[in-house]
Amino acid sequence: MSQDAYRLIGPRGNEMELPVHRGTTGPDVIDVARLYREKGVFTYDPGFVSTASCKSDITFIDGEEGVLMYRGYPVEQLAAKSSFIEVCHLLLHGSLPTQAELDDFENTIRRHTMLNEGMLNFFKGFRYDAHPMAMLSAVVGSMSAYYHDEMDSSNPDHRDIFAHRILAKLPTIAAAAYKLNIGQPFIYPRNDLNYSENFLHMMFAVPAEPYEIDPVASEALDLLFILHADHEQNCSTSTVRMAASSQANPYSAIAGGISALWGPAHGGANEAVLRMLNEIGDASQIGKYVDKAKDKNDPFRLMGFGHRVYKNFDPRATIIREMCHKVLDQLDREDTPLFDLARELEQVALHDDYFKERNLYPNVDFYSGIIYKALGIPTSMFTVMFAMGRSVGWVAHWREMITDPQIKIARPRQLYIGEPKRDYVDIAKR
Ligand code: CMC
Q: Whose CA is nearest to atom 36 of ligand 1?
């Protein structure tokens, strides 16, 4: 047996050598692709806890060590030194841009921020209190009706324009959804502003008076977008890959990713954290809620705790926690009690055996909602903020998959546990 192979020993001495793939870093991967064809058996892995669904050179996570790298660059360095737009270039193109490349890329994104006027009519059709995530996925899905002449995924120019449109227009769509919710007029983008400033302008400006953008707010947003930009094969990214593997148009695939992100076990957790902190209300109630989270007969979970991959700490949570201090100090906000409550809950959970034994640590969403709230962004928009940051990850993975010559439609198999064959019974005889 070669060193890079696993031996699978089946019944009656039926053996097979399975090749092993070695990545740049991270665990080895056993290749089971030939298993069914040669041995007639499937592998079983609900939730894909031990399954690599693809090869990728975009993002690396080491869950034990709390490492997250985009294209090899540690997220801590990018958070300290880079900007969201530069990170977008890095994720999409694989390398840090030169100044000229960055200027060109940023200029392109700024010039695609407007929506086709017809798309604004969609918003008139939604109920005034529609959830912004519902509007986001619907309107992004509708982009395939507006830009259908430039979405041939085999055409590199079409792939580029799709990427630019998604990145540039998502903030415009998101802000329009918010304006509908609060009954204010839609605010057009301003191309003299950077990505985060422009979003704040579209969210908070009104036609009646000038709006001044707070630099602390745009800095905090930019950081949050960097931290959310990609996270390898998470649920929403895998949804995008799976939908697009059928050669479905990329806007539909991104709309699918947005829907998957909305779930409270994924991106919807940031909204759920704030609802939970409000429900707990006071530090004296923490013990009661921690007990509820530990009770197997109670469906309550501590939102913002635990992660499928991070089993030591979430590096994004550490960075956000620091930014949380800065934002609350500099904006002089009154949300400090909520932040204090969050920190106290964190301490109680970190010292509790149940959470320690299961390696449940605060994740990225535990603190992000507190920052959003301090910036005046309503709870219903929290997951939309996550979607804006993650949009570049979805697009980068879509581009990687669609240009892979070995691309196959994603089609998992199953372990059938239903009835064996039986004969139809006439209705009178049942
Ligand atoms: N509160 C209480 N118990 C928990 C929690 C929690 N937040 N998370 C996991 N557990 C327990 C779970 O009950 C199980 O216990 P036992 O072994 O006794 O049955 C054990 O920990 C392992 O949990 P799991 O559900 O098998 O773990 P998973 O990897 O399938 O789930 C998770 C990961 C993130 C879905 C889960 O930890 C969770 O629901 N957390 C709360 C929601 C949340 O904050 N999600 C945001 C994730 S970060 C943002 C993103 O990347 O999307």
A: 306
Residue 24 CA from chain centroid, whole number: 24
What confidence score (pLDDT) does residue 260 get? 98
Q: What amino acid occupies position 237?
A: T
Task: Residue 131: count other Cβ atoms within 10 Å of its Cβ.
Answer: 18
Q: Which residue, judged by its Cα, is nearest atom 9 of ligand 1?
A: 306
Distance CA 360, CA 355 (A): 5
b vs e for 394-427, b when ≥16 Cβ sit within 10 Å of the residue's Cβ?
bbbbbbbbbeeeebeeeeeeeeeeeeeeeeeeee
State the Rg of the chain over Cα.
24
Write the CB contacts of 28 (distance below 8 Å, at least 6 apart in sequence).
4, 20, 21, 22
Distance of CA 28 to CAs 3, 46, 279, 307, 328, Å?
12, 20, 44, 21, 43
**What confidence score (pLDDT) does residue 122 get?**
86
- Residue closest by Cα to atom 26 of ligand 1: 308
> Full-prediction pTM beyond 0.85?
yes
Any ligand 1 atom below 6 A from CB of 305: yes
**In terms of residues, how long is the chain?**
430
Higher-pLDDT residue of 7, 140: 140
Distances (CA, A) of 137 to 121, 170, 388: 15, 10, 12
Q: Quick check: helix, strand or coil at residue 298? A: coil
pLDDT value of position 334: 65
CA distances from 207 to 196, 201, 204, 210, 211 (A): 20, 11, 10, 8, 9
DSSP 285: G
Residue 156: alpha-carbon gap to chain centroid: 25
Q: Which two tokens stand for residue 196?
A: 């985060």
Q: Which tokens belong to 3?
A: 């060193």
Looking at every residue in the chain, the average pLDDT score rounds to 93
Cβ–Cβ < 8 Å for 327, 374: yes
* pLDDT, position 1: 42
Maximum Cα–Cα distance across the chain: 80
Q: How far is CA 235 from CA 210, 259, 361, in A?
A: 41, 10, 19
Q: Determine whether the shortest distance from the Cβ of 356 to ligand 1 is under 6 A.
A: no
At position 263, the amino acid (one-letter code) is: G
Neighbours of 327 (CB within 10 A): 27
